Amino acid sequence: MWTGRSVLSMNEADAGEARALLALAHGDAWRGDELDGKVVANLFFEDSTRTRVSFSIAAKALGATVVDLTSKGSSVAKGETLLDTAWTIEAMGVDCMVVRAGQSGAAALIDEHTECAVVNAGDGTHQHPTQALADAMTIGRSFRRELDWDFRGLRVAIVGDVVSSRVARSNVGLLTALGAEVVLVGPPSMVPGSLSSLGCSLSHDLDFTLGGVDVVMMLRIQFERGGGGVLASTREYSARYGMNEGRAGVMKEGGIVMHPGPMNRGVEISAAVADGDRSVVLDQVSNGVLVRKAVLAGAIC
Length: 301
Ligand code: CP
Description:
The protein is an alpha/beta fold. The chain has helices at about 15-25, 50-60, 80-90, 105-115, 130-140, 165-175, 205-210, 235-240, 245-250, 270-275, 280-300; strands spanning about 1-5, 5, 40-45, 65-70, 95-100, 115-125, 155-160, 180-185, 200-205, 215-220, 255-260.
């Protein structure tokens, strides 16, 4: 999970390390000067709202100076490469780079070629480890597992455009390491048989799956990565795989609905469910700040 001080992936996540980090994040017992004198650079080569802002809030809460770089308005727009950009930022004396990029493996590449700590804030369809930590914290708090972060007995359905989703891959790695059972649900084009290699079960029937799970994590169709390309229509997709009030009504008592955001309201999730009693979408956002404080403290301190 951690390569030295960097956080790159939840593949083969270590349950002990993850539980320690979740406990630290949950406690939120920071002085506020842990990162005094440190510089965190947010290098976001893809758009983001919650990840970028929450890393900034987390870093500043611990006393770090934060600098932001996005593709637009930087020399990336003139054709400067990922590594030249990273080396340039490193030469200015940063302690940690938080990297989001469209290329799978981008954060690992920067980690390999620089000395500073690197946190993967989402790379292509590959990994989004801090989103998975925020999601695990949300599940743990929802089901009162904060004492041990042991998720045995919990069943989680991850529903939708799984093949395009770095969030799904990171969540499978982390949630199964913590003991949860994960099923990936969607049409065959979005949940192909090859995904069973991730170590979870697959289903193409949401209605059959719903009654037996504690957590339903809805995913956005990633139109920008070609997701939904073989769908007849988004209306048909919503009818078969969308989370609506009728489906929320057949979930277990106490079951929760998650979404990493941004949501396509009316496509994979109805507004009534997104804003309803089962929804923990905004808890996921709030918990994102807590886990990013712990990740940055671990990466830099
Ligand atoms: N969940 C997530 O990564 O959202 P953003 O793209 O807004 O950061």
